[in-house]
Amino acid sequence: MLEWPRPDGTWISSKRARATVSPPHGGLEEEDFAKFSALLQYVDGDYREAETFVQLRRLLGQARRPLHYLAIPPSMFAAVAEGLAQAGLASEARVVVEKPLGAISIPHGSLRAF
Q1: Cβ partners under 8 Å of residue 12, min gap 6
Q2: How many angstroms separate the CA atoms of 55 and 45, rounded?
Q3: For each successive 10 residues of the chain (114 residues), what is the average pLDDT?
Q4: Class of domain 43-114
Q5: 6, 39, 45, 70: which one has the fewest Cβ atoms less than 10 Å from its Cβ?
């Protein structure tokens, strides 16, 4: 099992990732999950600091089309999108935003600006 520390002292584990891709969410064979989980990586940092995105750029190396999964507060969407762009991590990338849609109001189309 792989584990990554969170800033709040809790841990993210491949066990959680496993549960996310298990039925009824789809499911993966053990061999496929092993390949998938080996690719998961965690970067600890402050969303407002350029160094966080420099670290991420180093970690991604020559990745051509990274997927950035943002499970962050909606108030940080713009800062993170800008940090990704300034570090050269937005071109050809995909950004997935996990947000509690009912919790705040975001004008239609405003996420496209990121």
Answers
A1: 3, 4, 5, 6, 42
A2: 9
A3: 58 68 71 79 85 91 87 87 94 83 58 55
A4: alpha beta
A5: 39
Does this model's pTM top 0.85?
no
Strands (E), 15-91: 67-70
- Give the pair of three-digit tokens for residue 63: 């990745």
Q: Look up residue 76 and give its DSSP letter.
A: G
Name every residue whose Cβ is closer than 8 Å to that of residue 39 and which is 6 or more positions away in sequence. none
User: What amino acid occupies position 105?
Assistant: S
Strand partners, 95: 68
Instruction: State the span(s) of the chain assigned CATH 3.40.50.720.
Output: 43-114
Ramachandran area for residue 51 (φ above 0: left; ψ -120 to 50: alpha; else beta) = alpha
